[in-house]
Amino acid sequence: MIEIKGLNKSYNGKKVVKDVSFNIEKGKITSFIGPNGAGKSTVLSMISRLLDIDSGEVIIDGKNLKDWDNKELSKTLSILKQSNNINMRLTIKDLVSFGRFPYCEGNLKEEDKKFVNEALEYMRLMDIKDKYLDELSGGQKQRAFIAMIIAQDTDYILLDEPLNNLDMKHSVEMMKLLRKMVDELGKTIIIVIHDINFASCYSDNIVALKNGELLMNKSCEEIITVESLTKLYDMDFTIQEVNSKKICIYF
Fold this sequence. Notes:
six-stranded mixed sheet
């Protein structure tokens, strides 16, 4: 479990995360939702130690984040941010191999190669593994970065808007894959997502943030209601049930 206790963060004197506290259950998909500027990505970055915490605590499996050794943390928790700009000319396989760095520090052993190949297979990239990143479509590149995270083999996976650059078909495939990783591999996935219907259909729990504050932290079933979503987004919603899933209509 990840425990978030009283997180605060300011930029240039402006408080962007205000005393946020909640827990993330292990073996579940937890989605962060809310309007732009709600603090979703900032909280995700503080949980992963990419951003310093002004005040508050993050506890991972009973151990304070500040007490984790970098190498051990990178074997426990991985994060994929929105923008992944790599200036080197790498193949997909090279990129995915970076996921094994915490274990082998660049000297791939047979076990590392096995994890790399399994990640490539999992993301259906094996047939194009030798293509360079600058030759890929946005969707292929996103899948390659996810494969790198899979190869890292961490219990906790943090993804900041992983559906960026993906069309409808590949967005659905990505969410099904994340669900499969939780259900079959026992991963814990925390995802910042804007599409409320993907959050509704694939999440176990939802953390709703607004203006840097925690508005709600409940099960998906409890949060996907007209009352909760209207309060969060300041707009009208209609919710219909399709194949036992709640679909939000807001156009």
